[in-house]
Write a structure and sequence with these properties.
The protein has 124 residues and is mostly beta strands. The chain has strands at 3-7, 10-12, 18-25, 34-39, 46-51, 58-59, 68-73, 78-83, 92-98, 118-122.
Amino acid sequence: QVQVVESGGGSVQPGGSLTLSCTVSGLTIGAYAMGWFRHTPGTERVRVACTDTTGFATDYPRSTKGRFTISRDDAKNTVTLKMNSLKSEDTGMYYCAADTRTYCPAYWSSKTPWGQGTQVTVSS
């Protein structure tokens, strides 16, 4: 049974930083691209970062590029998201997932179930 557990969320002021972690069990993530997503009520889940299987090819939307950094540790089956210069619009529940492919696709095809997520709140 595949399980995804996200952690590291919290409340920070604008301009602050957080590091999120994702641990996957029941599946070896090394063969899959990994992504982080943000969801806020009333909106669709939005991808905020992706890394391919090598860890060298990453993809970010314009809203997070230069502020967020995704990395993976396949030996530990974990994915990390470092978030700097946080803004109020970064607020939301954050989830990670594996895609069925090795590269960051335009449209996600999730290999893993969605975990419970970790809440990030950016507010003064």
